[in-house]
Amino acid sequence: MSAIAESEQQHVTARVVLISAAAALGGFLFGFDTAVINGAVDAIRGGFGLGAAQTGFAVSCALLGSALGAWYAGPLADRFGRVRTMQVAAFLLAISALGSGLVFGVWDLVFWRVVGGIGVGVASVIAPTYIAEVSPAAVRGRLGSLQQLAIVLGIFMALLSDAWLAGIAGGAAAKLWFGLEAWRWMFLVAVVPALVYGALVLGVPESPRHLVARGRPREARDVLRQVLGLNSEAALDQKVADIQHSLRSEYRPTLKDLRGPRAGLLPVVWIGIALSVFQQFVGINVIFYYSSTLWHSVGFSEADSFTITVVTSVVNVLVTLVAIALVDKIGRKPLLTIGSAGMAVTLALMAWCFSQATGSGADLSLPEPWGMVALVAANAYVVFFGMSWGPMVWVLLGEMFPNRIRAIALAVAASAQWIANFVITSSFPSLAEIGLSFAYGLYALFALGSLVFVLTSVRETKGMELEEMRD
């Protein structure tokens, strides 16, 4: 049976949706763990007496751990399997949440945040890899987008819990249960989703591509039968043969496999790295890590700043649902193009609004109508990001690389993403001291650069089988 005929028999099963959702819960922890510090920034800065550069490092240090976790996730997954690696990520996130909530000083906070970051980095690589490897090609984009949906839901729940805990305590620095400040509980509550994630992944099957590569084709056939709904023995044989051929009997790729003619790497690897870097350099995580501090700094009350942040996260969730509905209909590249153009315009508008700020320090404020315009522009920016660069980058990274290098190439691209995230996140407090207008103007330029990159370099992968991806 031809690959085309076999593909036509694939259909979406309830099981593939459920196991993809379970794997994507790692994205929930990814979003929760990275965004939860939003509500704690001011309390940590005041409680530990930190300057701008120290605050930036305390907020962003987890991202260094994420880069490390993403780098080693591929080799770990290749050796021990996707499922076992997801369990490791859940464990690291659970102990990090506990440690971060019980710290005595800024440096042990940094340590535990780095540990959690490693877990986030591992989850960021394994979830899209696993989902791409078990999904039918026709809906792989939508199932892959579950990762981003889980991320934005994690961000939303982190910001909502931050606002709730600060509200009932009377402020993030105020005492709450057992004599612990509210900001500590913001970290501690992350133990619950980490334990749930660890329990759920116990019930998902191993990736069929990993099973084939480990010489277990019979188990791979069973998984393919379950997740793709294939009942034809000939179709199953053909699918297993396609996987074996694509792996080329080389399962544990190394960095040497990524070598190519363009500055030492294959073109597809450079495209993956550039996608990751642009996703972060447009400044999206400044919104999700610093938004409470940002709106507070330009005249909004602490309570209003928390409310604005939660509303923004709701917008992010809703537009991610739109992206999931569109990704397999209009494709990855058109959505990225629309997103880049929209972000360039809205970021430029935010830069202009903040140039109208009056006062300085604690007395800084945005006069009417610029405060409202800045709010609208910020949420429009989140809309354009959430429907494009948020989910599309993870979908592309999970599917764009050839099978023989997917794990290691995704690890490299994801590590680049975390390093870029660290650069943007750690530098924002210092950039903000220069001027918020300067910071957002810089992000607008990167958004414009991302538009040029998409139009000239990104290849559409809608509807393609993973075995069709080329270097």
From TrEMBL:
The chain crosses the membrane at residues 12-32, 52-73, 85-104, 110-131, 151-173, 185-204, 265-288, 308-327, 334-352, 372-396, 408-428, 434-455. Residues 19-462 form the Major facilitator superfamily (MFS) profile domain. It is a multi-pass membrane protein. The keyword Transmembrane helix applies. Keywords: Membrane, Transmembrane, Transmembrane helix, Transport. It is found in: Membrane. It comes from the Bacteria. Belongs to the major facilitator superfamily. Sugar transporter (TC 2.A.1.1) family. PANTHER family: D-XYLOSE-PROTON SYMPORTER-LIKE 2. This is Sugar porter family MFS transporter. It comes from Lysobacter arenosi.
